[in-house]
Amino acid sequence: MNVRVLLFGPYADAAGADALTLAFPERDEVTAGEVLAAIRTEYPPMSGMLSAAILAVNERRARPEQPVRESDECVIIGLVGGG
Fold first, then answer.
1. Torsion of CA 39, 30, 7, 49, to 10 degrees
2. How many domains does the chain have?
3. Other beta carbons within 10 Å of 18
4. Which of 1, 5, 69, 74 is most buried, by CB atoms within 10 Å?
5. Is there a domain that residue 50 lies in?
6. Rounded CA gap, 46 and 58, in Å?
């Protein structure tokens, strides 16, 4: 299965793309934690940035154990500050 992850702002800059496609051969489902781990491994420039990010799946914050399917919309969301 393939999981497509949309990127914005500094995440897109670090990856050099607006989206990543991660391959999980012979799997029908993975977890949000596995998706983030794959990004850390396959895209080292993003590794340090992900400690301050969450993965949203279908417009909702995903817990690490949440299942992710090929048809899900995944987005990396960074911390947003304000004041």
1. -40
2. 1
3. 10
4. 5
5. yes
6. 22
